[in-house]
Write a structure and sequence with these properties.
Strand order of the largest sheet: 4-10-9-8-7-5-6
CATH class of the largest domain: Alpha Beta
Order of helices and strands: HEEEHHHEHEHEHEHEHEEHHHHEHEEEH
Strand content: 15-25%
Shape: globular
Number of strands: 14
Number of helices: 15
Structural class: alpha/beta
Helix content: 40-55%
Radius of gyration: 21 Å
CATH topology of the largest domain: Aspartate Aminotransferase, domain 2
Distance between the termini: 42 Å
Length: about 375
């Protein structure tokens, strides 16, 4: 039998062992760890909403209105009015017939994919899709095909091959992120939509890192490009720019009804706490309104200024990777930044491909120009002494 201590030693030797870091307090863009106040450049709270008074007030109201817990799964007695109000808000903002909220983005991805496809169907994913999407594809029993990141010629060949082999009742599901979580780049979404239509496939787009950041009302890349109505399933998270927690799927009513009946991560999970759902609804409304527009404008000003100052490529999202390649180099850089008062995580395999370890820098609307200048100067000094 394998010894856990031996496995941990192997992870340590490879520079791949992880540790939990207790956070004592959060005050965007700062957090306190072990008594030290650090500038946080690791958060996915892109608009700084997690500590926003409107979300705090909504959470408190949800707690008073419904209590601290939902008491059961949605299909038993846990389907509280606030969950339905959240889903109605998501559907309205995404321009879909219906939506379904899950306890997490991971649960939404795994639940949706395993409910929609089965043995005999085909799932085609971008190579850099999030682990939750990969896990859902593998668990579904469907044939899984992977195309190189954003390589549409390979995607089209896989679509043509799958359609030639499939019968009339078999589904083909294409999956991509709109903004990729580790590289921060965007998918060629208009072209992917055209290809899935040409080959009669379904398309699931994960907008986790685009909601709040892209689009006239912050609904993501699909909104920005005007193709939202041609995407079959819009997947998102409520725990990043929205400032709360949970995940969702927005789609036509029949697909949502199918998920209610077949998505195991939905059926067999206690419903999210009402305070969480209430805060998420408030975050979504804020993102779509005038304050959300102002925060997005400020975020993009910060992103462009920092990228230019740090000599990084023009940003496509709030994620700015600095690829170092070697695990030890990435860990050493993250440790040096921590010593200097910055929390910037080192991303390593399996989160990113082998040989592409990196610093993953995320910018928030809560960062001030002085914070960005301090990080850029520290990175510059690290590079000079490397």
């Amino acid at each position: 039998m394998r010894d856990p201590e031996h496995e941990l030693a192997e992870l340590s030797e490879a520079g791949l062992r992880r540790h939990l870091r207790p956070v004592d307090a959060v005050d965007p863009p700062f957090l306190t760890v072990a008594g030290r106040r650090l500038l946080n450049f690791s958060s996915n709270d892109y608009l700084g909403l997690a500590a926003h008074p409107a979300l705090q007030d909504a959470a408190a109201e949800g707690l008073q209105r419904h209590g601290s817990g939902s008491t059961a799964s949605r299909l038993v007695c846990g389907s509280l009015r606030i969950h339905h109000e959240l889903e109605e808000t998501i559907a309205r903002l995404k321009g879909s017939e219906a939506a379904l909220a899950f306890s997490s983005g991971y649960a939404a991805a795994v639940g949706a994919v395993t409910a929609l496809v089965r043995r005999g169907d085909t799932v085609i994913l971008d190579k850099l899709c999030h682990a939750s999407l990969v896990d859902g594809a593998r668990l579904s029993g469907a044939t899984v095909r992977v195309y190189p990141h954003n390589k549409l010629d390979k995607l089209e060949r896989l679509l043509a091959s799958a359609r030639a082999r499939s019968g009339g009742s078999q589904r083909i599901l294409v999956i991509t992120e709109s903004v990729f979580s580790m590289d921060g780049d965007r998918a060629p979404l208009e072209e992917i939509v055209t290809l899935k239509d040409r080959h009669d496939a379904l398309l699931l787009v994960d907008e986790a890192h685009a909601v709040g950041v892209l689009g006239p009302t912050g609904q993501g890349l699909a909104e920005e490009l005007g193709v939202a109505d041609r995407i079959d399933l819009q997947l998102g998270t409520l725990g990043k720019a929205v400032g709360s927690a949970g995940g969702y799927l927005a789609a036509k009513r029949s697909i949502i009804d199918l998920l209610v009946n077949k998505a195991r991560s939905f059926i067999y999970s206690t419903a999210p706490p009402p305070a969480q759902a209430a805060a998420a609804r408030a975050g979504l409304e804020l993102i779509a309104g005038p304050e959300g527009a102002r925060l997005r404008e400020r975020l993009w000003e910060r992103l462009r200024a920092f990228a230019a100052r740090a000599r990084l490529p023009a940003p496509e999202s709030a994620i700015l990777p600095r690829v170092l390649g070697d695990n030890d180099a990435a860990l050493a850089a993250a440790a040096a930044l921590l010593e200097a008062g910055f929390l910037v995580p080192a991303m390593r395999f399996p989160t990113v491909p082998r040989g592409t370890a990196r610093l993953r820098i995320t910018i928030s609307a809560a960062h001030g120009p002085e914070h960005l200048e301090a990080l850029a100067k520290t990175l510059e000094n690290l590079q000079e002494t490397a």
